[in-house]
Design brief:
Number of helices: 24
Strand content: 5-15%
Largest sheet: 7 strands, mixed
């Protein structure tokens, strides 16, 4: 049974009459009718750029062959058996090809890449998913109510677990006036699923998004991703042409008015810290989409929606922090096997969070234009002084809109910095993170002179008086609430309202029984620090605020904690 669940063969819909989109449907409902044209547009634009001279064309072909040979030789799988011979033969022939053959080979390579990347959208699957998926998850969360979850008019389980914050009315207006690009923080492979549910709850349209090809190995997840707008990203491929295909595919979708989603961090936060180093490629694709439309005299606004996804319990926390703590993890982009790929951990995770009010909070921040400016209720860009400005002016030269790669790259860097600042301000700190920080700070105070890795080996060796933890939790919480009043961060209602003893109890309860080891546990009147690595992961969300919520006696430990984020 599990073999079938993790097969990479896509599920297929039974033969049902195709859905004919209506004018009132979201733009993505029309995607399949444009899919071939979108792929052709991507292929033609990339090939035209490479064919400007023979040297550039040969370099592109050699780069593709070299990197694919290296990748396939290391994989030693069925794909390698099928494709390795082609690439080895091609790299020997590139120099002997005439211009016509080189162009033909380039077109074939790029077309194959674009077709592999391009997504699909089936309105029938979307209509099924919006009804069935919440009920299915509800059944997993509460097995005793499984049958009732499918017969009830609607499932309230996800509503209890998931909270959505932000100016939803504003987003609902903007979605009909231009292209929304949601740019969330990234903590878990569940992010796409919970964000899709949040969009549904808020009455916002489905989006186009990229998903790692490794996620398509799960038969069920692959079926929904394949039919709900996801395009496939194979992070094993290092070919420059492939990177250009991904970027341009995203750009063309935004140019054509499809609402989109991508994770600027590129991958899940291994450390648990708030992302600050963002990958600018896909951000740049949205900036260039705006520029290209302006050059073509298409007045279609593009707005970015900074979004934070905040969990009290992270499905893959143990694997992620272990990966971050190793040199291999710092260099590795893909985790092939973690908690997300195991059905039993899904069940354990959902059963754990079902009883926890507000276990996940998604916060939609204030929308901004491609140049980092806030926008008003109608989507007009605002200067820092609050005056209405035309964002098209950013891409003009002598009164005419022009494409300028260097200029747009600079705008993209500035946009990345704006998003990083917004992530910090709009992150919602959860109970486990605040409790984890206070406990980890005590660990640092109790072990002066020790380095991080020595501290992480102190499993079940250090305990703290529970009343001391209550006092420190209360003080930390009060300082965080004060920071929230200044707009510097957000805290969950639980952190803001629960008394310290309940806050501690809630944090310990979240950890107990889900992870292979527990971060901390209550032993009589003392709190035992059981797994410092897990404490590190959860407390890392507060690294940016460590010194701002510490008193004078705690400042040395807080400074050590703050230093963890210096090179992130």
């Amino acid at each position: 049974m599990l073999k079938r669940l993790f097969s990479d063969r896509p599920l297929r819909l039974p033969h049902i009459k195709p859905y004919v989109p209506r004018p009132s449907d979201p733009s993505i409902f029309w995607f399949n009718s444009e899919r071939n044209d979108i792929v052709s547009d991507v292929v033609n634009r990339i090939c035209s750029a490479q064919e400007t001279d023979r040297t550039r064309l040969e370099m592109a072909l050699n780069d593709a062959a070299f990197h694919e040979i290296r990748r396939l030789e290391s994989q030693r799988d069925e794909e390698a058996r099928d494709r390795l011979g082609y690439w080895r033969s091609m790299i020997r022939r590139i120099g002997k090809m005439d211009d016509t053959e080189q162009r033909r080979v380039l077109h074939t390579i790029v077309a194959n890449m674009a077709r592999d990347v391009a997504g699909n959208f089936d309105p029938r699957v979307y209509r099924f998913a919006r009804q069935a998926v919440p009920r299915l998850v509800a059944g997993v969360m509460e097995p005793r109510r499984f049958t009732r979850s499918f017969t009830a008019p609607q499932s309230e389980v996800l509503t209890r677990v998931l909270r959505v914050q932000g100016d939803i009315d504003h987003l609902q207006y903007l979605q009909s006036e231009g292209s929304l690009v949601f740019v969330p923080t990234h903590s878990s492979n569940l992010d796409s699923i919970v964000l899709a549910q949040a969009l549904e709850v808020c009455g916002l349209p489905p989006v186009v998004y990229g998903a790692g090809k490794n996620l398509f190995t799960n038969l069920i997840i692959s079926f929904f991703m394949h039919n709900l707008g996801a395009y496939r990203v194979d992070r094993r491929i290092r070919v420059q042409l492939y990177k250009e295909v991904l970027k341009l595919y995203s750009q063309v979708m935004i140019e054509r008015g499809y609402h989109s989603l991508f994770f600027p961090a590129g991958t899940r936060s291994r450390s648990g810290m708030i992302e600050r180093r963002l990958k600018l490629g896909l951000l740049g694709s949205a900036v260039e989409a705006f520029t290209t439309n302006r050059v073509r005299r298409v007045d279609r606004p593009v707005w970015f929606v900074p979004t934070t996804i905040n969990y009290a319990l992270v499905l893959e926390a143990e694997t992620l922090i272990r990966d971050w703590l190793t040199e291999e993890g710092k260099a590795r982009y893909i985790i092939e096997d973690d908690e997300f790929s195991r059905i039993d951990r899904w069940v354990a995770f959902f059963r754990k969070v079902i009883g926890m009010r507000g276990a996940c909070i998604i916060r939609f921040g204030e929308p901004i234009d491609p140049f980092g400016n806030l926008v008003d209720g109608k989507g007009a860009s605002l200067s820092p002084a609050g005056h209405t400005i035309d964002p098209g002016g950013y891409v003009e030269s002598r009164g005419t809109s022009v494409v300028d790669v260097a200029r747009d790259a600079a705008y993209t860097r500035d946009l990345g910095m704006v998003l990083a600042e917004r992530y910090e301000r709009d992150t919602v700190l959860m109970s486990t993170q605040v409790v984890g920080h206070v406990l980890f700070r005590h660990l640092v105070q109790a072990t002066p002179g020790m380095d991080l890795f020595a501290r992480l080996r102190l499993r079940n060796e250090i305990s703290i008086d529970r009343n001391v933890i209550h006092k420190d939790l209360g003080e930390a919480r009060d300082r965080l609430v004060a920071l929230e009043s200044k707009g510097d961060v957000r805290v969950s209602d639980i952190v803001r309202e629960d008394p310290p003893d309940q806050l501690l109890e809630r944090g310990l309860k979240f950890w107990d029984g889900y992870h292979d080891s527990t971060a901390a546990s209550l032993q009589g009147d003392r709190v035992l620090l059981c797994d410092p690595s897990l404490l590190l992961y959860y407390q890392n969300r507060l690294v940016s605020f460590a010194e701002r919520i510490a008193d004078s006696e705690q400042m040395l430990a807080a400074s050590e904690i703050a230093a963890l984020g210096v090179h992130r």
